[in-house]
Amino acid sequence: MADCGMAKLSPRIFNKTTSLTVEENKEIHNHPIFSYKMIKDSSIIKDSVKLAILEHHGRLDGTGYPQTIKTKSMHVFSKIIAVADVFHAMTSERLYRKKQSPFKVMEMILHDDFGKFDLAVVKTLLSGLANFSIGSKVKLNNGSIAEIVFIDPSSQTRPLVKVVDNEQIINLGINRELYIEEIL
Fold first, then answer.
1. What's the half-sphere exposure (Cβ side, CA atoms, 13 Å) at 129?
2. How far apart are CA 81 and CA 87, in angstroms?
3. d(Cα 127, Cα 134) in Å, to the nearest integer?
4. Percent of the chain with pLDDT over 90
């Protein structure tokens, strides 16, 4: 529901394989307002959910759109949708870029976007990801296929993996030049 307002935008934006223009970015930044207007009169949707739909592109540091929001006024549902929306966008294939691994995305959210998202929400998502990942086959950025064997709670985005070909155990928390490129 948070992105239902995207239906009001020009289809040409969604088919672009190049960067958006300033005007196209402004158009995209209006989708939370369109989404809110589409659901605001619904009696079956709680006001807190309506607010979260409007605020889901806000950031704790005051950046974001359609309006800047500071920590105290941003609803907890908005904080949850903000993290989920970025995670989903970055782990999904797009015309203009390849999808990224959930581990890489979580690392970027934790480090590159530090201060933009609610840390408790990020840690909850990261914990959920860790719980479902042990035993998963992955492709490392060097092309090796490996299996996740252990996730250290203090380094959840960089687990221990066992390379399938030679059964070598690699601690991605220590071996920083390697990372999980894809979950298979």
1. 25
2. 10
3. 12
4. 73
